[in-house]
Specification:
heterodimer, A: 111 residues, mainly beta, B: mainly beta, seven-stranded mixed sheet, four-stranded antiparallel sheet
């Protein structure tokens, strides 16, 4: 079964605004990853945060991880129309050796 | 560096027919995954290979699905006979890390979209 649950399911914002997506999971993890999927395409890796890390940055992306609450957030700053896509969190569950994907957040950035 | 190649991109079949999908991972990647993604959902793991051995196929419907990775490189996923609920995108991914290591970044292909009528 899928490990992560993203919130919200869909998000619509104006270009230039910030977008925040949340992910909750149920079991202990080695790391948590975020992926982007443009319509009709494969998934592209965005960022990986390990279980002993609390925050990580990559360009306009900021990811936080709270293992006590079993949750993570992805912040995209200064959004662009090209950021329109579905975003998935994926957890590397302890002992599982593969990734479990959430249900995704569909982000629409309006020019 | 070439990415993960998948074919065909699209396939339409009648129920009870068979279909096969092919994947060529990134050169040198030891681990290969097949995921099923139903419209509006996240990818669900079907099978994981480490070189040419199966690491995890616990979620593969073995009565109709089969997969192999000959010589530890290319892989094929077969469905026979197909059901309506098999309509989905079949994604292949590869990784440099071995199954015994924590899962790192996965590199995905563009997927094969299957429609079963």
């Amino acid at each position: 079964s899928q490990q992560g649950e993203e919130d919200p399911q869909a998000l619509s914002i104006q270009e230039g605004e910030n977008a925040t997506m949340n992910c909750s999971y149920k079991t202990s993890i080695n790391n948590l990853q975020w992926y982007r999927q443009n319509s009709g395409r494969g998934l592209v890796h965005l960022i990986l945060i390990r279980s002993n890390e609390r925050e990580k940055h990559s360009g306009r992306l900021r990811v936080t991880l709270d293992t006590s609450k079993k949750s993570s957030s992805l912040l995209i700053t200064a959004s662009r129309a090209a950021d329109t896509a579905s975003y998935f969190c994926a957890t590397d569950q302890t002992g599982a050796n593969n990734l479990f994907f959430g249900t995704g957040t569909r982000l629409t950035v309006i020019p | 560096e070439a990415g993960v190649a998948q074919s065909p991109r699209y396939k339409i079949i009648e129920k009870r027919q068979s279909v096969a999908f092919w994947c060529n991972p990134i050169s040198g990647h030891a681990t290969l995954y097949w995921y099923q993604q139903i419209l509006g959902q996240g990818p669900k793991l079907l099978i994981q290979f480490q070189n040419n051995g199966v690491v995890d196929d616990s979620q593969l419907p073995k009565d109709r699905f089969s997969a192999e990775r000959l010589k530890g490189v290319d892989s094929t996923l077969k469905i026979q006979p197909a059901k309506l609920e098999d309509s989905a995108v079949y994604l292949c991914a590869s990784s440099t890390l071995g199954w015994e290591e924590n899962t790192g970044e996965l590199f995905f292909g563009e997927g094969s979209r299957l429609t079963v009528l």
